Amino acid sequence: MKHQPNKLLRHVLCHTETKTTYKKGLISIFFIFIFCNKFKMVGAVTEKTFQEICDLIFRTNATNEPGFWVLYEHGTAVHFGPQTFETRDQLVAAANELIGVEVCVGTPTADFNPLQLNFTTDGKQVYFVAYSEPSTMGTLMTSGATADDFFIGIQGREKRRLDCEEKKICTTSFDFAAAQ
Fold first, then answer.
1. Cα–Cα distance for residue pair 165/22, rounded to 1 Å
2. What residues have CB less than 8 Å from 36, skipping those under 6 apart?
3. Single pTM value for the model
4. How many helices and strands, by DSSP H and E, does the chain display?
5. Which of 60, 69, 116, 123 is most buried by its number of CB atoms within 10 A?
6. Cα angle at 71 between 85 and 97, to 5 degrees?
């Protein structure tokens, strides 16, 4: 199965019935644009941690300033656009609410779009599994060998389910910024 960003863009645009879902659809398009053009597999591969990758991919586009994100234990990352959070606790509460969206097969919550990124972690290829609903969430994961998109997507969805149930936070944008 080849990566088909235009198919996902059509899906997002066809499922934007209200102003709220329209905004979510635009966020999905923004995510796809970032990953397809900025971090897809082209040229040399760079070794990075998941925290460094989150910091790179979730920066605000216009100013390149760090965005707000939460990374869970199994690799699910929740990103918040131009919103501002005063404290880590506010960010975590908002992320926990969003990650609580149940994945239901046959609905947009189960749709995924796996992307092979231009990064490795511990020598393994990094993939980002983007979701249609909620569109501000995705799962970072590794694979030792080149894998089928469907296999990567199903694995990412399972990791998302585990993070939804356990809600164990690995790090946040607040933690990452303080460590720098």
1. 28
2. 3, 5, 115
3. 0.73
4. 6, 7
5. 69
6. 60
Q: Which residue has the tokens 């966020």?
A: 27
Cα distances (angstroms) measured from residue 34 to each of 9, 53, 87, 109: 13, 13, 27, 21
Answer for the pair 129, 152: CB distance below 8 angstroms, yes or no. yes
- Could you tell me the two tokens for 83? 């919103």
Q: What is the pLDDT of residue 17?
A: 38
- Note the residue count of the chain: 180
Residues in the chain with pLDDT values less than 50: 1-42
- Nearest-angstrom CA–CA distance, 138 and 57: 11
156 contacts 112 by C-beta, under 8 angstroms: yes
Q: Are 62 and 45 in contact (CB under 8 A)?
A: no
Give me the pLDDT at residue 48, please: 87
Q: What pLDDT does 136 receive?
A: 83
pLDDT of residue 97: 92
Q: Are 121 and 67 in contact (CB under 8 A)?
A: no
